[in-house]
Automatic annotation (TrEMBL):
Primary subcellular site in the record, as a coarse category: other
PROSITE patterns per UniProt: HMA_2
One Pfam family, short name: HMA
Subcellular location: Cell envelope; Periplasm
Highest taxon, organism lineage: Bacteria
GO cellular component: cell envelope; periplasmic space
Gene label: merP
Kinase found in the keyword field: no
UniProt key word Transmembrane: no
Molecular functions (GO terms): mercury ion binding; mercury ion transmembrane transporter activity
Identification of the protein by name: Periplasmic mercury ion-binding protein
Signal sequence annotation: 1-17
Keywords from the UniProt entry: Mercuric resistance, Mercury, Metal-binding, Periplasm, Signal
Domain spans labelled HMA: 20-86
Length: 92
């Protein structure tokens, strides 16, 4: 029963794996070089395809493959670079 569920979950996650777009609020971005650091950190995460930072809004929009990474990993990446972040919106 458990194994069957696991196999189903694996199949389902592959079938529905898709690019996700999330906007992260990065409140500590304060100068022109901050978004560069944030972008570099996010770009290193496997599965991330596009990173766009908006310094004025202190937000970064990330396009990622949800089969390879997740929101927690993205937040961890920015936090490790010195910029804690939190999702503003998440859409499919
Ligand atoms: Cu800065």
């Amino acid at each position: 029963m458990k194994t069957a569920f696991l196999i189903f979950a694996l199949l389902a996650s592959n079938a529905f794996a898709a690019l996700q777009t999330v906007t992260l609020s990065v409140p500590t971005m304060s100068c022109a070089s901050c978004p560069v650091t944030v972008k570099a950190a996010l770009s290193k995460v496997a599965g991330v395809s596009t990173v766009k930072s908006d310094l004025a809004k202190r937000q970064t929009t990330v396009v990622y493959d949800d089969a390879k990474t997740d929101l927690a990993a993205l937040s961890r990446a920015t936090a490790n670079a010195g910029f804690p972040s939190a999702p503003v919106t998440a859409s499919k």
